[in-house]
């Protein structure tokens, strides 16, 4: 292809409305994100109906801002990329229908993107020379996957959570100790003041020692039981120690399984993706353990860890280069699995 391929990407899977212009899957001309955190904070979590309405209100403005910042017009766009799953169905439909309308009106190709693949592709933006194969840990509020990326668009799921996602566990524990929403950043912050060895919270112990799956429901229950016992005895609770000890159990589980995956696939590179990839303890532990095991650990900058359209634009580019486009019959799939089309 003799010209730069410009993709207008749209992301609306949960509570961020985002639009971006991405060139050749790795160069970001704009990445506009309208967050709803302050709106949902008073509810203690994302309310799907409220999120959908807010997407409708701001999506046109966000797309216009993305084009303006990129200093291009809709006529300059070569294709439209959009998240169609997984996510909240109402929220997904807002972005998807907007993208389909643009595709039809402009007569430009439509490219449906798996949200999880988008998170993985954020690393292609951060690291311009990154190429498969490598292991990727996708860890967010709704997903925890350990993936072997064989080639662009080709994934092998090595492990996944059997219950709560890691980020979901963070939110529940934050709520239990009175930190509020969003839980992940709040737990991370207060944990720096605590002793990670103060309380021995257990990790899941699977009978199959070969599995690379995760489980966080038992850990969550252990923390809740600890808090209940303290409350019944009317004993003081050190929130910082609880947060630090909980976080150590989560992070060690994520890091250990990721390093085991590298040995299994004989690769020396791990790319981390998703909202929890911004966690300071996870980054520090990965850096330390990666160095000891001679494994390069890659993290996108924080803005690329959260839900954003730039990562969707990157994933859309690689789909397009493989000849994969979508029809205007494309529908939202809230439970879309990694690697599904």
Automatic annotation (TrEMBL):
One GO BP annotation of this record: tRNA threonylcarbamoyladenosine modification
Enzyme kind, highest EC tier: transferase
Catalytic activity: L-threonylcarbamoyladenylate + adenosine(37) in tRNA = N(6)-L-threonylcarbamoyladenosine(37) in tRNA + AMP + H(+)
Compartment(s) where it occurs, according to its Swiss-Prot or TrEMBL record: Cytoplasm
Binding locations of Fe cation: 115, 119, 307
InterPro entries: ATPase_NBD (IPR043129), Gcp-like_dom (IPR000905), KAE1/TsaD (IPR017861), Peptidase_M22_CS (IPR017860), TsaD (IPR022450)
Pfam families with a match to the protein in the record: TsaD (PF00814)
Cofactor names: Fe(2+)
Domain of life of the organism encoding this protein: Bacteria
EC number of the protein: 2.3.1.234
Span of domain Gcp-like: 28-313
PROSITE patterns hit by this protein: GLYCOPROTEASE
Keywords of the record: Acyltransferase, Cytoplasm, Iron, Metal-binding, Transferase, tRNA processing
Cofactor note: Binds 1 Fe(2+) ion per subunit.
Gene3D superfamilies named among the record's database cross-references: 3.30.420.40
Transmembrane residue ranges: none
Annotated GO CC locations: cytoplasm
Positions bound to substrate: 138-142, 171, 184, 188, 279
UniProt-recorded Gene Ontology molecular function terms: iron ion binding; tRNA N(6)-L-threonylcarbamoyladenine synthase activity
NCBIfam families recorded: gcp_kae1, T6A_TsaD_YgjD
General function of this protein: Required for the formation of a threonylcarbamoyl group on adenosine at position 37 (t(6)A37) in tRNAs that read codons beginning with adenine. Is involved in the transfer of the threonylcarbamoyl moiety of threonylcarbamoyl-AMP (TC-AMP) to the N6 group of A37, together with TsaE and TsaB. TsaD likely plays a direct catalytic role in this reaction.
Protein family: Belongs to the KAE1 / TsaD family.
Protein name: tRNA N6-adenosine threonylcarbamoyltransferase
Organism: Clostridium kluyveri
Gene name of this polypeptide: tsaD
């Amino acid at each position: 292809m003799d010209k730069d391929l410009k993709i207008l990407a749209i992301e609306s899977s949960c509570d961020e409305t985002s639009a971006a212009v991405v060139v050749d899957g790795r160069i970001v001309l704009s990445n506009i994100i309208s967050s709803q955190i302050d709106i949902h904070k008073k509810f203690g979590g994302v309310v799907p109906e409220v999120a959908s309405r807010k997407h409708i209100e701001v999506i046109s403005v966000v797309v216009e801002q993305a084009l303006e910042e990129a200093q291009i017009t809709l006529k300059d766009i070569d294709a439209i990329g959009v998240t169609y799953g997984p996510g909240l169905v109402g929220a997904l439909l807002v972005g998807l229908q907007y993208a389909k309308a643009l595709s039809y009106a402009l007569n430009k190709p439509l490219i449906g993107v798996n949200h999880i693949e988008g998170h993985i592709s954020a690393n292609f933006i951060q690291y311009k020379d990154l190429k498969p194969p490598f292991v990727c840990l996708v860890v967010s509020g709704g997903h925890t996957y350990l993936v072997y990326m064989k080639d662009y668009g080709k994934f092998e799921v090595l492990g996944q959570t059997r219950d709560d996602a890691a980020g979901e566990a963070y939110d529940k524990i934050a709520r239990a100790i009175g930190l509020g929403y969003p839980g992940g950043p709040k737990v991370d912050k207060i944990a720096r003041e605590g002793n990670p060895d103060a309380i021995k919270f257990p990790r899941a112990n699977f009978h199959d020692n070969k599995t690379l799956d995760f489980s966080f429901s038992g850990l969550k229950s252990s923390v809740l039981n600890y808090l209940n016992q303290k409350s019944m005895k009317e004993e003081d609770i050190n929130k910082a120690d609880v947060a630090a000890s909980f976080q150590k159990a989560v992070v060690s589980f994520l890091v250990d399984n990721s390093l085991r995956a590298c040995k299994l696939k004989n690769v020396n590179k791990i790319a981390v993706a998703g909202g929890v990839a911004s966690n300071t303890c996870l980054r520090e532990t990965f850096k330390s353990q990666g160095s000891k095991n001679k494994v390069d650990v890659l993290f996108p900058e924080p803005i690329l860890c959260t839900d954003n359209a730039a990562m969707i634009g990157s994933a859309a580019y690689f789909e397009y280069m493989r000849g994969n486009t979508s029809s205007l019959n494309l529908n939202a799939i809230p439970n879309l699995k990694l690697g599904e089309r």
